[in-house]
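Comment on the following before class.
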Amino acid sequence: MGRIRNLEDSTSHGNSNGRKLVADIMETALLAGDPYNSIFELARRDGNKLIFDCKDFEAYEDPNSGPAVYDLDAFDRIYVFAIGKGIQRMAKALEDLLGD
């Protein structure tokens, strides 16, 4: 699903080719900066394992470099605590990744 909700209305008149080009650029930028998508670059699920692994998110020369693997069978519940503007989208991504 795209982030621009009025795409058809915005590109259906005037210089529609130019408007579509600008809308494509804006859509790409919005998706690239969406914290929801960032979670899927950082985390993945392999069966009952939750794996956080992305060199781009690691601190320079981190002594604990490499994937962090969590066995979901070892946890009864998972709580997400965070502060910031993007946390709702990040929490939604984790919810979608983990499921029930």
